[in-house]
Amino acid sequence: MARSRRMELLARLPPTWRARFLQLGFNWHPAFRATGGRVHKVSANLQHIVVRLPLRRRTRNINGSLFGGSLFAITDGVHATMLLAGLQRHVIVWDKNAEIQYRRPGYQTLYANFQINPDELDAIRGQLDQYHEAEATFTVQIQDPEGQIYTTVERTIYIADAHFYKQKTQSR
Q1: Sheet harboring 149-161: ordered strands across?
Q2: Is 141 left (phi over 0), alpha (psi -120 to 50) or beta?
Q3: Measuring CA to CA, which residue among 161, 157, 162 is closest to residue 77?
């Protein structure tokens, strides 16, 4: 319930404050800070987020490139948060599956560009209305400023109406 209260608070803020509040929340959260990544940009509608991962001593592996764990970790929780904000209803959101494909080592600052379009949100709402739960798969490419892809991450997210999820877990 605390998570939904935070989203309700976020929804009551003016749009420009929402984006800043979400950015600060990510950047100051201890687990996200530990990744070495920083939320660089959040759109006013909270459906587009850019995360920056600089090459620093903390994010560098033994070979001098970006640590694979940091590349993977900067993608954790971003789509879930965007879904919580975008669906505008009481839902439970969990990462269900995640896969990463490393294409080349990164020796510079890289960016992850997260986006959820209104059609995707509508499709999820439709599934929630019909089945009370849904799954959505999102692909994020981590790239340099020129658009060269270094890593691709695919995350499957489980979404359920909060009331349905509570009943489902109590029946186990």
Answers
A1: 38-42, 48-53, 110-115, 133-143, 149-161, 91-102
A2: beta
A3: 157
Tally the domains of the chain. Answer: 1
To which H or E segment does residue 32 belong?
A: helix 30-33
Tokens read off for 108: 């510079």
Q: How far apart are CA 154 and CA 134, in angstroms?
A: 17
What's the pTM value of the predicted model, to 2 decimals?
0.90
Task: Dump pLDDT digits (tens) for 116-137.
Answer: 999 999 999 999 999 999 999 9
Amino acid at 97: N
Number of helices (H) and strands (E) in the chain: give both, helices first: 7, 6
Strands 110-115 and 48-53 turn out to be antiparallel
Segment 5-9 shows an average pLDDT of 70
| 19: Cα within 13 Å, side-chain hemisphere | 13
Alpha carbons within 13 angstroms on the beta-carbon side of residue 113 total 10
CATH number of the domain to which 77 belongs: 3.10.129.10
Compute the CA torsion angle 73, 74, 80, 83 (nearest 10 deg): -160
